[in-house]
Design goal:
alpha/beta, single chain, globular
């Protein structure tokens, strides 16, 4: 059957923690939308921002949650809400090159590793 011939890659959950990130968030979200790997979900966990962070995020995902009091609690909550086989944790001030998610996915699938670190270039 046609559906049997199509292989769909496991989903990657991209978990973003935010707190008053309106000046940087759109760049990150746009870079996720432009990824060459397309089977992902964006989960945004906001720590009660008082700026337009949530309004910006709503243009890219409906999976927006409010959780604090700090980043590790936000990341754990995002992981709990995720549906992906793999999790990528990002800070709101990052910007991804177009193949980052694909490269992480391929490395994890090939090497059966438990964690991959994405180096940040400044």
């Amino acid at each position: 059957m046609i559906t049997e011939m199509l292989q769909i890659s496991p989903m990657v959950s991209v978990i973003i923690t935010t707190k008053n990130s309106s000046t940087t968030l759109k760049v990150l979200l746009t870079s996720i939308i432009k990824q060459s790997f397309n089977n992902w979900e964006i989960i945004l966990v906001d720590n009660s921002s008082s700026d337009k962070t949530v309004a910006i995020a709503k243009k890219f995902t409906q999976k927006i949650f409010v959780k604090g009091p700090e980043r590790s609690a936000q990341r754990n909550f995002g992981a709990f809400k995720s549906k992906g086989k793999y999790l990528i944790f990002l800070d709101s001030d990052m910007e991804l090159q177009k193949d980052v998610i694909k490269e992480c996915f391929e490395m994890a699938e090939k090497n059966k590793v438990g964690a991959i670190t994405i180096p940040e270039n400044t």
